[in-house]
Amino acid sequence: MNLRNLISPFYAWKRALEKPFTIRKPLVEREGPPLYRGFHTNDIELCIGCGSCEEICQNAAIDLRRVDGIEPKQGDSGLRPSIDYGRCCWCALCVDICPTASLGMSNRYNWISDDGEDWVFTPGVDDGGWNGDELGYRRAEGSWLLDPEAREMPVTGPDERRRTFDEYAGGYGPADAAAEATRCLECGLCVEACPTHMDVPGYIGAIREGDLDEGLRILYETNPFSESCGRVCTARCQDACALSQLGRPIMIRWLKRYITDSTLERRAAVIGDGSAVRPTGRSVAVVGAGPSGLTAAFYLSRFGHRVTVFERAEKAGGMLRAGIPDYRLPAGVLEREIAAIAGPLVELRCGVDVGRDVTVKALREEYDAVYLSVGAQEGSSMPIPGMDTPGVHIGVDLLARLALGERPDLGGEVAVIGGGNTAMDVCRSAVRLGSKRVRVLYRRTEAEMPAAVEEIEEAREEGVEFEFLTSPVGIAASRGRLVVTCQRMELGEPDASGRRRPVPVEGSEYDVSVDSCVMAVGQQVEGGFATAAGVKVTRWNTFEVDGDTLATDERGIWAGGDCQTGPDDAIKAVAAGKKAAWYINDYLGGRS
Amino acid sequence: MSTAARQTDPWYPVWAERPSFDLASGKYLKIWQGPQHPGVSGNMALELTVEGDIVRDCRAHVGYLHRGFEKLMERRKYMNCFPIVCRICVPEPDFNEHLFASAVEELAGIEIPERAKWIRTLTLELARIAFLTMGLGGQAGSFGLGTVGQWCIVHRDYVLDLFEELTGHRIYHMYIIPGGLRHDLTPGFAERTEAVLRKIEKLMDEVQKVLFDNAVIMSRTDGLGVIPRPWVDPYGIAGTNARAAGSSRDVRSDSPYLVYDDLDFAPIVGERSDAYGRSLLRKREILMSAGLIRRILSRIPDGPVRVKLPNPLHWKVPAGETFVRAESGRGEMGYFMVSDGTGFPRRVHVRGPSYTHAMALFEELVRGVSIADVAGLMASLQICPPEIER
């Protein structure tokens, strides 16, 4: 130690002349840096209230609550996240997981309120003054915690599938199914969107856990046609899926198919045939063995009621059998499902035409309750000349013949009129029947087509041509062929369905020469057979029911499915059958 | 056995022959320093038995700061643990983030991108600078030299400014995430880091003059809390405390993690093992870290900073166990993690260096020290109670 050591500390005085590090006055509000994780922002129009933020929050700081002016709708729970700033740890995992990227954080960190309630804050609704701030934490590219990519299903190439009615979609393997199931957020928006409210997160969770029997049991809780729906369902659940906002939805339909396809030999053991249920002694007649009638029969018999199903056709299945070609829904699928529905309390009487062989009134007297589910089987035609010309077919009739194993020759060139899923089934079947040139003529544009987008795409892959904004005005035979006279259309004002109405263009007629022409322009309900029993019908000939219970005005008679709604998809028919089963069970005094 | 005897047999601990003191005699007095005390570097208590102003015996008590992080993690999904680990140790959150992430990555078999490794190393070195600078200030403050304490705290804040810019927060960064980093370096980060490093180097010059060349400090720290070299292993001494005692123990060079293998450096081994020597070594390590940061910034490769992980809500880590460690500012820090193959860690154990330093070693070193120097001794060991408790 020396003199220097005594003097050295005084060096600190040098700093006394410098600008001070900190100042007390004036108080300057320092702005947070651009990536600062400050108070939350939320674009509530973008947010769908899926609750992923709530799920990932490690401190339970986020709660979803109702917000004035936001109504629940398909794919939107109507709830919005509110954050308890007494619990929030500012980790921003909620921002990183948000499936819509509506959540963000501002770079504001200073907020003073003397009201403790203010600490529970609904971003985007409550205004702290930072809504719409540009700066603050936003998740970086590649930081999204979710996977936007869906696992692809193995599909036969278009050239190969043109030649055969065999099923072309291969189904997931275990690895793909598990990976796809892992993407799920379990938000439950799909459950709400599904007409029969299948427990989608439940069975997807069962796939993740590897417990497929449990998955199958969950499927049969709400839908005894899961194997069919796993192939042909319109999958509203996927439209509602939170992941569809920024990526591809979970392939819920394929996952459902994976469960049913992987548990074929265990199905009977897992579901049971209902023999363990104590019979109630009550009986129900179900008219029509389509998806709706058989669903009602399944649940009613599992409640202990004796069910007799009357079917006009030789085989049960309804439109699932007659309306969907084999390449989408192989016949074996339906056989298995009908076999699983069967049980000691279910009696299936095929070849009985209710209305002709036995009246509804007689059924009502013999049985404790009647469920009408005859579907919409009558194909519509068009009010144009030449509809009875040989070579003009009705779409649903043609599909029914295919279902019976017939393979009619439609000739080299085919015109299909219509833009719905039946039109797609017909045109793709025509390709498989050997027609070289298949044209779909639709009076609106592709955007207005009611057919599923992937159906349209796959039809195109198989070589089907599309002509839009055209409608036939007459058909005539000419030298062994058909001449379809068409008129060009243009889009006018929106109609009741919200789609723009096609308006004919005067003087734009032209001829299309084909070998056959198929009308796929809708189906109709034949509801008249039940009016004698007192069941009211609407002007479209569909049954009039109470929307909540599906009960008709006639006590003891219910109606549901296509015959009540008009032509719709299988899952809505299943939903109606299930709903009717519950209300009929209530009516019969049974327990659920 | 006398202290001298214990120095020859370091495996013979102080509590094996803890003497009893007759408090009724009036010769001895019991004084509690802590759990709330400016001379204690956090919430822990020193139960001192003094004779005059000389400490004859000490019992260190912890348990005032227990937050149960290890238990909390057993009920949280892996990704949900990520925001809470940084809270285990306030001065050095990044080591907790890195160790948690690397333990999960090891169990799950995830290889993070090269760029992420470099930037992780950068943040860890910045964290060391921030901690050691604050520690130097604490050391000065504990001897009444508040000016240097304030300088150091301000300069730590310059580093925190960098963290704030890079990670979005000053203290709880939550930047190192399983799978890599949350986002890339911000534009201009290297230049701003360089400016801060220059400030730190200038500060170290001044600290040398005001603190290390200061006659008062020199005399008060001389011979305070000498750790003999043979104690290093039996007492589990790590970090700067061990290196000042002549050991070259440094996880960065002993078992290199991240990119330390590529950085070509040797641990600094000190010559003096008292409070003065340890502080001087820390000053040298701050400058060494500054050098490492410059080298890292000049060599960070391009590329992604994160790999895609499965959906965090259903992420299951394969069963297994691992122990990962890193050299924090206080010394070797480790995470022991056990996975039973579910979505929740079965056990996470945090092994920080402060426990042995604060309990066994401190109780031994404090004997014979005057009360006025207890705080200085504690600061010289860089004890961090939050990390003892978890």
Helical stretch tally of chain A: 21
The level-1 CATH class of the largest domain in chain A: Alpha Beta
Regions with little confidence, pLDDT below 50 for 5+ residues of chain A? none
Indicate the structural class of chain A.
alpha/beta
The number of helical elements of chain B comes to 15
Task: Using a beta-carbon cutoff below 8 angstroms, give the protein chain pair with the largest interface and the number of residues from each chain.
Answer: A-B, 45 and 44 residues
What share of residues are in beta strands of chain A? Answer: 15-25%
Report the sheet-strand fraction of chain B: 5-15%
Would you report the number of β strands of chain B? 8
The sequence of SSEs of chain B as H and E is HEEEHHHHHEEHHHHHHEEEHHH
For the secondary structure, the number of strands of chain A is: 21
Whole-number tally of structural domains of chain B: 1
Any overview of this molecule?
The complex is a heterodimer of chains A (592) and B (390). Chain A contains 21 helices and 21 strands. Chain A is of the alpha/beta class. A five-stranded parallel sheet of chain A has the order 8-7-6-9-21, with helices on both faces. In chain A, strands 11-19-12-13-14 form a five-stranded parallel sheet. In chain A, strands 15, 16, 17 and 18 form a four-stranded antiparallel sheet that branches. By secondary structure, chain B is an alpha+beta fold. Chain B has a single domain (69-354), classed as Cytochrome-c3 Hydrogenase, chain B (Orthogonal Bundle). Chain B has helices at residues 3-8, 69-74, 78-85, 93-108, 114-142, 146-167, 189-212, 215-221, 239-244, 251-254, 260-263, 275-299, 354-365, 371-380, 385-389; strands at 28-33, 45-51, 54-61, 176-177, 180-181, 320-328, 331-339, 345-351. The longest helix of chain B has 29 residues, at 114-142. The radius of gyration of chain B is 21 Å and the shape is globular. Chain A binds chain B through residues 1, 4-6, 8-9, 11-12, 14-15, 21-22, 32-37, 52, 55-56, 58-59, 89-93, 96-97, 137, 139-140, 142-143, 145-147, 181-186, 208, and chain B through 76, 79-84, 87, 145, 147-148, 150-151, 154, 164-169, 172, 174, 182-184, 186, 206, 209-210, 213-216, 218-219, 304, 306, 308-314.
